[in-house]
Design brief:
This protein is α/β, with parallel strands linked by helices. Helix content is about 30%, strand content about 25%. The strands form two sheets. It has an eight-stranded mixed beta sheet, with helices on one face. It has a six-stranded parallel beta sheet with strand order 3-2-1-4-5-6, sandwiched between helices. Helix 4 packs parallel to helix 5.
Length: about 325
């Protein structure tokens, strides 16, 4: 692993979200976007040229075996995350893999075990976890300014055109609202309250069998609750509200992105303006590099166990709602 202050990043699969990550990485001191890999060599070269990466490859294997690459960001569809991550870990690369980390908890367990066996870093790219506004919300909760928190309301919805072969609706690609966007409010609930002891969920399924919308109620050990709604059939407010017995914290539209928040108590409402650098995707890259500098193989801010508990929660929701993927029946 690179012992200097510059870390060379490789990018596996230059798709839509990879552009966002590459844009954010430009704001990270000590980060160099070094190599791009795609099954389409021309696509890799074009992406590399756009972001001034010096190397491009027409195979993932070539990226994984490049001795100059320190960290690989994996941006393939959900169903390929385990395969791609294992390839990189087995060649000693640090890995930041897009969310969800995999399709089910069995795959997540397999990936975590490989990271340990290969003494390599692994983190799920839950980028919102590292944003200043999300961190500030947790600080306000822990300060006691809204008293004892007891409830979370959070939603995420947008309208997508139905295409049975698209990433959002094809079960072979891990389609559905839950794995694509449900991960945001679910991670937030776990971040605030821990693992729930009761899960109640219902979903409306698309003709392909994946969920196009889903409602989830979580109940926690202290009696706290969370109501979550996700959908790819309509635009929603995309807001989050944390309620306590002495006030509330409101994260407005697109709460999972860089933004501001407000706190309401008996003294009125105070708007809290946050400062940001980059587009938000940079903060998770900073976390990865900080961990490597400190010799850690996982983040304490979003650990292997955090990813596993999140996936187990989504497994339970899928089981309740009757959502299955072909990948659920292989590799076991």
């Amino acid at each position: 692993m690179n012992m200097h202050q510059t870390y060379r990043w490789g990018m596996l699969a230059p798709g839509k979200i990879a552009h966002k990550f590459a844009s954010g990485l430009q704001y990270v001191p000590g980060a160099e976007l070094y190599a791009i890999a795609s099954r389409d060599e021309v696509k890799a070269k074009n992406f590399a040229d756009q972001y001034h990466a010096p190397v491009s490859y027409g195979s993932y294997e070539a990226l994984a075996t490049d001795p100059l690459v320190d960290i690989i960001y994996i941006a393939t569809p959900h169903t390929f995350h385990m395969e791609n991550t294992l390839l990189c870990l087995e060649h000693g690369k640090a890995v930041l893999c897009e969310k969800p980390l995999a399709i089910n908890s069995y795959q997540v367990e397999t990936m975590i075990q490989s990271a340990k066996e290969n003494d390599s870093f692994l983190m799920e790219a839950v980028w919102s976890r590292f944003l200043p506004n999300i961190h500030r919300a947790k600080e306000l909760v822990e300060s006691g300014k809204i008293g004892v928190i007891n409830h979370l309301e959070a939603d995420f919805g947008f309208k997508a055109d139905y295409d049975p072969h698209s990433r959002l609706f094809d079960p072979a690609l891990g389609g559905g609202a839950l794995l694509d966007i449900g991960i945001y409010p679910l991670f937030f609930a776990l971040y605030l309250f821990g693992v729930p002891n009761k899960v109640e969920s219902e979903a409306k399924l698309a003709p392909t069998g994946v969920d196009e919308s889903c409602r989830v109620k979580l109940t926690f050990a202290g009696g706290e609750t969370a109501n979550i709604y996700i959908t790819v059939t309509e635009f929603t407010a995309v807001e989050a509200r944390i309620e306590g017995d002495q006030g509330a914290i409101h994260l407005p539209n697109r709460w999972y992105q860089p933004g501001n928040l407000a706190i309401t108590t008996e003294h009125g409402t105070e708007d809290i303006v946050m400062d940001f650098v980059g587009n938000g995707y940079n903060y998770q890259a900073v976390e990865v590099m900080n961990c490597l500098k400190e010799g850690r193989r996982e983040s304490t801010r979003w650990s292997h166990n955090d990813s596993l508990q999140l996936m187990r929660l989504m497994d339970e929701i899928r089981e309740q709602c009757g959502i299955e993927y072909p990948a659920d029946h292989i590799d076991r």
